[in-house]
Amino acid sequence: MKKLAFITALIITAAFASSTGYNIGDKAIDFKLKNVDGKMVSMADYKEAKGFIVVFTCNHCPYAKKYEDRIIALNTKYKSQGYPVIAINPNDTTIVAEDSYTNMQARAKAKNYSFPYLIDLTQSVAKTYGAKSTPHVFVLQKSGADLMVKYIGAIDDNSDDASAVKEKYVENAVDELIAGKAVTKTSTKAIGCGIKWKS
Q1: Do 169 and 156 form a contact (C-beta atoms < 8 A)?
Q2: Please, where are the H alpha helices in the chain?
């Protein structure tokens, strides 16, 4: 009876953990999602990467649009240093047609994305990670065969005006990781549009 209660408790704990998403220090799972070029992409494809800037974003959200150029800049700055951007659209495209796969392809081409823009059709990756909004960033660092969560939250402290940003959360976190330091500010509140979940 005690063994059954213990197993039940483990199942409940696992279910709770998966529903709430990752915390700092957790091991993140890899994924295999369809890119706008039709190819399947996973983090395992990046043999030389030291980590990743995983951004849950989309086409339609005003906040995602405001941050789009900053996401492109993050990849330009950090891909060569071992921390490429991987963008994921988690929205139910039946709710927001602007976020459809075809529109994702058009957007990536128009803005000349130099990073993958993946579609999370089942929304399982967004749920596992605990993404709540677009954009929502998870900075991961490779540690042996593991992917450790080092930062979760917003890109910076000013969604409206890139020129008025006082604190660049993602850049600071990645700079510290590259320098071999611990991340000073590990989490912030992601500001954006709520993810459109399947009913």
Answers
A1: yes
A2: 2-20, 62-78, 101-110, 124-129, 169-178
Q: Is 79 strand, coil or helix?
A: helix
pLDDT in tens, 41-85: 999 999 999 999 999 999 999 999 999 999 999 999 999 999 999
Enter the pTM of the model. Answer: 0.90
CA-nearest of 184, 52, 176 to 118 is 52
Indicate whether 5 pLDDT > 50.
no
Residue labelled with tokens 């963008």: 87
DSSP element (H, E) containing 146: strand 146-153
**What letters, b where the CB count within 10 A reaches 16 and e where it falls short, cover 162-172?**
eeebeebbbbe
Reference 193, options 159, 163, 157; nearest CA is 159
Q: Using an 8 Å Cβ cutoff, are 95 and 60 in contact?
A: no
State how beta strands 85-89 and 51-56 pair. Answer: parallel
**Strand intervals (E) in 19-121:** 33-35, 40-41, 51-56, 85-89, 117-119
Nearest alpha-carbon partner for 138 in 127, 126, 152, 155: 152
As a whole number of angstroms, the distance between CA 114 and CA 84 comes to 10
- Nearest-CA neighbor of 124 among 12, 21, 2? 21
And the tokens for 61?
């959200």
